Amino acid sequence: MKAVVDQDSCIGCGVCVEACPEAFRFNADGKSEAYADGDDGKVSDAISECPVGAISEA
Ligand code: SF4
């Protein structure tokens, strides 16, 4: 599953990067970006665990 991160909402907490590093990474602004497809379950976990609801399914 591919995701998209709302850059205005992301607070750079790192939860998604820890949960699914094959799909999320930090960018130069210290925020997360979804750069690749990840395991569906892990991406779903990241979506539900993001404290500000910044991640959605692409
Ligand atoms: S979990 Fe949410 S707020 Fe935290 S880095 Fe990922 S997208 Fe940003």
Helical content class: 25-40%
| Count of folded domains | 1
* Major β-sheet annotation: 2 strands, antiparallel
| Hetero groups | iron/sulfur cluster
User: How are the strands of the largest sheet arranged?
Assistant: 1-4
Number of helical stretches of at least 4 residues: 2
The overall strand count is: 4
Are there runs of 5+ residues with pLDDT below 50, and where?
none
Envelope shape: globular
Radius of gyration: 9 Å
CATH topology: Alpha-Beta Plaits
Describe this structure in words.
This protein has 58 residues and is α+β, with helices and mostly antiparallel strands. The chain has one domain (3-57): Alpha-Beta Plaits, CATH 3.30.70.20. It is 26% helix and 21% strand. The chain has helices at residues 15-19, 40-49; strands at residues 3-5, 24-26, 32-34, 55-57. The strands form two sheets. Strands 1-4 form a two-stranded antiparallel ribbon. It has a two-stranded antiparallel ribbon with strand order 2-3. It is globular. The chain starts with a strand and ends with a strand. The structure holds iron/sulfur cluster.
